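cron nightly-structures :: item 1 of 1
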Amino acid sequence: MNYNDFVAGRVIIAINKDCVQGISPASFENNLFGIEINNIEILFQNRDPANGSNIGAIVMIDLRTNDPQAVINAIERFNENPCVVFAEPDFHLEPHIIPNDPYFGNLWGLQKTDCPTAWNYTVGSPDVVVGVTDSGINSNHPDLMNNMWLAPRGQGKRGWNFEGNNNNCEDYTGHGTHVAGTIGAVGNNFIGVTGVSWVVRLASLKIGGNVFDMAAAINAIDYANRNRIQIINSSWGSRFFSSSLKYAIDNYDGLLVVSAGNNGSNNDIMPVYPSSYDSENIISVAAADQNDNLASFSNYGEISVDIAAPGTDILSTALGSGYTYMSGTSMAAPHVAGAAALLKGYRPELTALEIKDIILSNADKKAQYLGKVLTGGTINISRMFEAVS
């Protein structure tokens, strides 16, 4: 048993039926127990004295300190007292969460990254917004519409079209919709798939259609900053270094998750931007296949690519109300963006750089990624939560 197994500051004890009448908050601070407490709550009371049990009541003790060691010390003290039948911690319970979305069994990426264990901690928060700088989002998709963001003072706008400079940020190619579904398709709604984060807000930051526009991307990043959008997914890139784009990224207060590229080449030698920028708030993501190998098409780089995530044959939302499989580092990055959203929902006080550090420092290291990505491994979402819980 370790400190993560129970609630700090609480002890559950069973009181002998001969002592129940004398139990009060004051009795815990006098010679009966000698332990300082805030409160006592009766959880279960034995109302049938003839049932043969020597337990009169089960009570929860709220200690005056949240020091986890105090729980262990109090249990030892309680168990020495003849009025106590047994004392134990208030253990954390593990809900065995598997979503009821019918295609969940096809989402190998969520299972490989151990999302079901992470969902025992949280399934997300509507206070977390992820900006999808892409071809737009099919905001009326039945598996996305309830997780779409509404811009403040935006009269119902779900984002912005930075290429066309209008509020039509719908998707007509499918790329952005697929990315959005991996990040945050609604979970446990008996429909289709689930995203890494069941509950999140997806902002459609449209920067093009089949081809994206750098000026639009810079404008979208600034928009995200002004609207306090905490995470951006950018599944795109270029061989051309842009000082303007780098400036926008460096001055963005949130976390930017980017795809490494699909050339099968080394970004340390032949850079792809924004993956190869040295900006502190970037996580660059390579694509892994179902056999835990680097996908054949995926770019890599021990310096400029941080981590790998599932990126082959990924099922996600499509145009209309459908679903489709796609492959690419574009599909790997949203697994990481979704993980960042989950973490931000669980620990809202974490900064972008703290979230980045937690994601990278808890990577699942594998020999085949050594020398290929900075962490030498793939994202492990449940391990992130074990580290911060």
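cron nightly-structures :: done
The mean pLDDT is 90.
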